[in-house]
Amino acid sequence: xxxxxxxxxxxxxxVGVIAAILAGMLPRAFRGAGKVVALGFLAIWLAYAGAFSxxxxxxxxxxxxxxxxxxxxxxxxxxxxxxxxxxxGRRLAASFSVALLIGFQLFRVGPELTITELYYHGxxxxxxxxxxxxxxxxxxxxxxxxxxxxxxGTIGRRIAFGWNVLGLLSLFNVAARSVLSAPGPLNLxxxxxxxxxxxxxxxxxxxGFMAPLAFAIHMLTFRxxxxxxxxxxxQWNARSASAAST
Length: 246
Prior knowledge:
This protein has 246 residues and is mainly alpha-helical. It contains nine helices and no strands.
């Protein structure tokens, strides 16, 4: 078991690596001013998420609305807008294969191992770990397998769609457990220890950056699956029309 200082350092390095990978991927979808905006958004997102735990806003149970709401509410609202509504989301979904998007969900292993370590330090309840019913680690470890299956064509995309739904439900499950076991007005799950895992820096980046990132990739995967299905139907119709004309 790592001591808290070593765990903090290791997790912060891990977040930096994930952010660097994302920064390297964004230019594949955006050019010029669009790339600058996308990289700027990533930087602001990280700074916003980090500031909440750095300044202790997640630790104050008297804050109204709760600090967690002020953190994740705007982040999720913006990500839903980008990935589900705006053309930028379509561009991102079209720039990466379904297999790559699903495979990238492997990054969730890092946060889950960190939460397990925080449980051993008495800062997280058992229900946020795999033995306690949080299956996020299994979702993350299965991502490369279903990324491979997603490349099988129509049937592979259907299986990938099902996996994406289950992965999203798993994310909602652990998010609800985290909120309901944390100190504050929403503390409805009275666990052996309160969920204090995410109140201090850098672990506030788990609900502020890591969880929303997983959500955004799920949303983009749905759009990528839809685009791939449309492309497949268009190719089929074109071949049918060509065969009919000969």
